[in-house]
Amino acid sequence: MEYKQSLSRRIVFAFVLMTALVGGLFSVGIVGVVHVVEERLISHDLGGEMDRIINEDLLSGRGPRLDPGMRFFISDGMGVYAMPPALQRLEEGFHEVFDGELSFHALVRDSYGRRFVLLQDQSDFEAREQILYAAVVTGYVVSLAFAGLLGWLLSRKVMEPVARLARQVRHRDQLLDLAPPLAPDYASDEVGELASAFDYAMGKLHDVLNREKLFTSDVSHELRTPLMVIASSCELLAEDASLGPRARNQVARIAAASEEMRDLVQTFLMLARARTKDLGIAPQAGVLSVADDLVAQWREPIEAKGLALIYQPDAVPAGQFNAAFLRSVMSNLLRNAMHYTDSGHIRLQLCDSGFVIEDTGEGIPEEHRERMFQPFVRGASQRGEGLGLGLSLVKRICAAAGWEVSLHPAQPHGCRFEVRLASVA
Q1: Cα Rg of the chain, angstroms
Q2: What region holds the HAMP domain (predicted)?
Q3: pLDDT in tens, the chain (425 residues)
């Protein structure tokens, strides 16, 4: 069951509801007791008066001796004792009757073949009874208001440690490495158990983050040495005059791949750290230079597949950008286009806001486009040896750099990736 109200409001509502139920039952009980007591006591008194009048006064031939406020009627009586038609319809027993603004308790009895009715004025009693009912209703309303106030005060007291824990948890990410445990600040109750559970979860998360930081640092550090060896070896081989054109071409490809791998290591390291200041001091490059290098790198494998690579540097975005990020985004989009295009062309177009990469492949259905930027999600016809991380990496890089990447259908078929850049320089 989903609760959309806050816990404090639920506590107040519980107080008011409990008071409404208990107070309502108590008020109904008071009214019921008043009616029962009224009927039993007054009917007992009227019954005694009725017996005295019938068995003593009437049998002795005297007129009924009535207390002030009483009236007596006989079914066959005459004069003041003549029974009004309204009383003749009453059944035997105790009743309440009204005559204008006056109210009476009535006792009806059939005896000796005649019907007798004894009335007792209860106007004062009825007024006091109405005052009692008004007091009950007022007390009920006041108790609801008091329950709401008390519930509000108690909810604030009860929720105070929960709210304090929430504030500590909300700001804990800012002091992840320095924040002390939370559980010692709370009693051994439910809130203390919650704080202990959070300390345990944060400890596990802290361990995972430390392992990830160490992993990225170690990978970055350990890969730089072999990459430098490869790069220096390529430089030495390039200076060897005995190498033929084909060998020199292979050495150039090895050097380019080494440079790309070094950029990727730097990209992954900056993504893992996710620090804006690291992005600002990273090597910068223009879009045109990066695009020229990648077009030269990807033209041969794209054309070897029978596709045409169309390069249109119509407009160049102004400013300098994170070189590793820009190279990774553009390279992944070109690789993705090559894998999922069997015929036609791949177009790389530079524009004032960034660049566009368009292909004539099979395209992506509209309902699957947003999912394509999620990790380990691949197209319907999976190509290449990838794991579905290329577009996810593109999305993460753009989010870290403040760029925007969007996917649209190309005409007549295929995909159109548009990247809007924001300069960090």
Answers
A1: 47
A2: 156-210
A3: 455 667 777 788 887 888 888 888 888 888 888 777 777 777 788 888 888 888 887 777 777 888 888 888 888 877 778 888 888 888 888 888 887 778 888 888 888 888 888 888 877 777 777 888 888 888 888 888 888 888 888 878 777 777 777 777 776 554 555 567 777 777 777 778 887 887 777 778 777 777 777 776 666 667 777 878 888 888 888 777 777 888 888 888 788 777 777 777 776 676 666 555 555 566 788 999 999 989 988 898 899 999 999 999 988 888 888 888 888 899 989 988 898 888 999 999 999 889 999 999 888 777 666 767 775 455 555 444 444 567 888 888 888 888 999 888 888 888 999 999 975 44
pTM reported for the whole predicted model: 0.50
* 190 membership: H or E segment, kind and range: helix 190-238
Query: Half-sphere exposure (CA, 13 Å, Cβ side) for 151?
Result: 20
The beta-strand segments (E) located in 257-379 are 284-285, 308-312, 321-322, 345-351, 354-359
Do 336 and 390 contact (CB within 8 A), yes or no? yes
- Give the chain's domains with CATH numbers: 7-148 (no CATH), 190-268 (1.10.287), 281-420 (3.30.565.10)
